[in-house]
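Students often ask why inverse folding is considered easier than folding. One informal answer: many sequences map to the same fold, so there is more than one right answer. In these notes we will look at a single instance of the problem. The structure comes first.
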């Protein structure tokens, strides 16, 4: 389970937006191991100024993902708030899967080194 803290700046945080953020961020729970029960996502949504593209509203979404030894930040600006939230979720997903594959690779390399050392002692 991921603990999510949500903050809104220059806009109101409706229950629909809050539920949407929780639904999207819960999909990242597959990256949390059993020992990391302290996973925290600090999520902020913001309506930026109206000077972009002839007065069109721009929305910014930012997420800081904290887990033991893992700190990842993602940010996106879009004309639609839900699109910005989706872009942040995709970026976090990409970063976490990259980190997970690096950890697995390091584990396999360590296992190969130990195997080589043990084979050398058997001769």
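Output (designed amino acids):
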């Amino acid at each position: 389970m991921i603990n999510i803290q949500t903050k809104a700046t220059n806009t109101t945080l409706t229950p629909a937006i809050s539920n949407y953020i929780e639904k999207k961020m819960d999909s990242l729970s597959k990256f949390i191991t059993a020992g990391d029960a302290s996973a925290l996502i600090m999520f902020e949504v913001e309506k930026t100024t109206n000077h972009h593209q002839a007065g069109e509203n721009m929305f910014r979404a930012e997420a800081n993902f904290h887990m033991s030894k893992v700190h990842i930040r993602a940010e996106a600006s879009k004309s639609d708030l839900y699109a910005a939230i989706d872009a942040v979720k995709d970026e976090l997903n990409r970063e976490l899967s990259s980190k997970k594959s690096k950890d697995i690779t390091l584990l396999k390399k360590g296992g190969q080194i130990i195997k080589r050392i043990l084979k050398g002692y058997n001769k």
